[in-house]
Every structure is written in structure tokens, then in C-alpha cells.
Design brief:
- It comes from Dyella dinghuensis.
- With 198 residues, this protein is mainly α.
- The protein has one domain (2-186).
- The protein is 70% helix and 0% strand.
- The protein contains seven helices and no strands.
- The chain has helices at 2-11, 14-27, 47-73, 80-98, 118-125, 131-149, 157-197.
- Helix 2 (14-27) runs antiparallel to helix 3 (47-73).
- The longest helix has 41 residues, at 157-197.
- It is globular and about 55 Å long.
- The two termini are 24 Å apart.
């Protein structure tokens, strides 16, 4: 119970915070444009900038894997699809930090596309309406489609990536908060029932 709570609490902060590191690093990188260039391109610059970008991806990825473990440890509702797809996406982010852009292992052969379905699975397995998760899933789908088809405008594809990053990674912060709230309400209801029985 304590481990799950800890993993969910870090999930309220670290997934998006990890991605803010390369966003901020890009602002100080000479000759780099946050508007025109993707964050992964920072890995090809100076060792310090590259390290900041890689650390951000690893922190975010490990945090998302931690979120997946917390989901697995949840007594109810059972959310196997959410847990597995979140873990896959988290591992793909870790690989983004380990392998540089240009390597097929950067993103583990595009397995990071699993981000499209993680919020949708969460909404389905939560057993109640969750429009925020469905919207996050749709936004991820639209961005990934634009990216894969070349519809993402090249002169501003660094900016669109950063805009898309906020709901994609911020969703994990939101989902962690929802699961903490669900757990707290279950504990409160259980305590009230025990008091009534006494």
C-alpha cells in the first residue's frame, strides 16, 4: 500500500517534469531552435545539453514505469491494459535517453506509439466516464498521425512537439491524482463501514 502510494505520488510530478528538462535546455542551447527542432535533436549537441536531454527522458520514462507498477499493485479496479501499455511507453522513453536520435533503439522501434492507447485504456478500465483521458488519447493520436504522415509543419515542428508533450505527459500526473483519490475514498468508505459495524 505504501509503495503504491509513493509510486502514484511521484507520478503526479515526474512524468511532465522530466520532459520540462529538455524543453528548458533547448532555450539555452546555442544554434538550436525550440520552434523548429525536436527535443531529441538536443542529444546531438554539446555533452552538457545532451546529458540534460537524456536525463529528462530517462526520469520521465522511469516515472511512467513506476506509474505502471502502481497500477498493477492496485487492488481494484484491475487495469492490466493500462499497466502494460504505460510500462511499454515508459521503457520507450528510457530508450530515448540511452540511445541517440538516428538509432532504431531510440524509442525502441517506435513502440512509444503506445501513448495513444494508454489514456483510452485507463478510461475504459476505470469503469466510469473519464472525458479527460479520452481527450488526451485523441490529442496523442492527432499529433502522432501528423508526425508520421509529415503533416506536422516542419518550420514549427519543435513547437508542436512541445505543445503535444504537455497533455501527453501531463496525463500521467492527472491519472496518478485520480488513482490516489480513488484509493483515499475507498479507505474512507471502508473506515466508515467498520465504524458502523462496531
Amino acid at each position: 500500500m505504501f509503495m503504491r502510494q509513493l509510486l502514484l505520488r511521484q507520478g503526479m510530478v515526474l512524468p511532465l517534469l522530466g520532459m520540462l528538462i529538455p524543453m528548458m535546455a533547448g532555450l539555452f542551447a546555442p544554434g538550436y531552435s525550440s520552434i523548429q527542432q525536436h527535443m531529441s535533436e538536443l542529444e546531438l549537441l554539446s555533452p552538457e545539453i545532451s546529458l540534460a536531454c537524456r536525463l529528462g527522458a530517462i526520469i520521465s520514462g522511469l516515472s511512467i514505469v513506476g506509474f505502471a507498477v502502481a497500477v498493477i499493485l492496485s487492488p481494484r479496479p484491475r487495469m492490466p491494459f493500462t499497466a502494460v501499455t504505460a510500462a511499454i511507453f515508459g521503457l520507450s522513453m528510457v530508450s530515448n535517453g540511452i540511445f541517440t536520435m538516428g538509432s532504431p533503439l531510440h524509442g525502441m522501434y517506435a513502440i512509444g506509439l503506445s501513448i495513444i492507447v494508454v489514456p483510452a485504456f485507463f478510461a475504459a478500465e476505470l469503469n466510469r466516464k473519464n472525458h479527460v483521458s479520452l481527450i488526451a488519447s485523441c490529442l496523442a493520436l492527432i499529433y502522432m498521425w501528423a508526425l508520421m504522415t509529415g503533416m506536422d509543419p516542419k518550420p514549427i515542428h519543435g513547437l508542436t512537439q512541445r505543445i503535444a508533450t504537455i497533455p501527453m505527459f501531463g496525463w500521467f500526473n492527472y491519472a496518478s491524482f485520480i488513482l490516489i483519490r480513488e484509493q483515499t475514498s475507498r479507505v474512507s468508505v471502508g473506515g466508515a463501514l467498520n465504524s458502523a459495524k462496531a
